[in-house]
Specification:
Layout: H1 4-33, H2 37-63, H3 83-110, H4 114-144, H5 149-171
Helix pairs in contact: 1-2, 1-3, 2-5, 3-4, 4-5
Length: 172
């Protein structure tokens, strides 16, 4: 049985994952509008991944007999000055999500709630991968640049990231 504090924090995380999906879907739409099909595809797939993260949390809540409560949210930003600015915001958002996961892990460890602690380890590893992924995208943007043909190559590179991620998911 989950404590009230843990139920509240897991509900916050569920809603954060939904907000993340909305953010990435909106960013995908912005990329599509700017004819950045590779980035649009990548971010759309990433939005789906965030919803899968939410569903994993939701199922855990159900398994423990807790009620998941979905809340409202603000509309995500829909305008960005550049692709670099947008991915900088994604990276900062993923760092924030990591912070929230770490707070959940701390709570589970402090209570102690070993089942939830074990469950959250997947999220710890996932967030490490997420931060690494978006930091590497920012590094590539810095390396290649977004002027002239650079933007074309960045879009193509990011589009290939989504294709390789889909291929690796299919192997699981």
């Amino acid at each position: 049985m989950l404590s009230t504090a843990m139920i509240n924090r897991l509900n916050e995380q569920i809603n954060l994952e939904i907000a993340s999906a909305h953010l990435y879907l909106q960013m995908s739409s912005w990329c599509a509008y700017k004819s950045l099909e590779g980035c649009a595809t990548f971010l759309s797939a990433h939005a789906d991944e965030e919803m899968a993260h939410m569903r994993r949390l939701l199922n855990y809540m159900h398994e423990t007999g807790a009620l998941a409560i979905l809340g409202g949210m603000e509309a995500p930003p829909h305008e960005f000055n550049s692709l670099k600015e947008m991915f900088t915001k994604v990276y900062a958002h993923e760092q924030f999500v990591t912070h929230k996961i770490n707070e959940l892990v701390h709570l589970a460890n402090t209570e102690p709630d070993y089942a939830t602690l074990q469950f959250l380890q997947w999220y710890v590893a996932e967030q490490h991968q997420e931060e690494f992924l978006f930091k590497s995208i920012l590094d590539k943007i810095e390396l290649i640049g977004t002027e002239g043909q650079g933007l074309f190559f960045i879009d193509k590179e990011i589009g290939q990231l989504s294709q390789s991620k889909v291929a690796s998911s299919a192997q699981l």
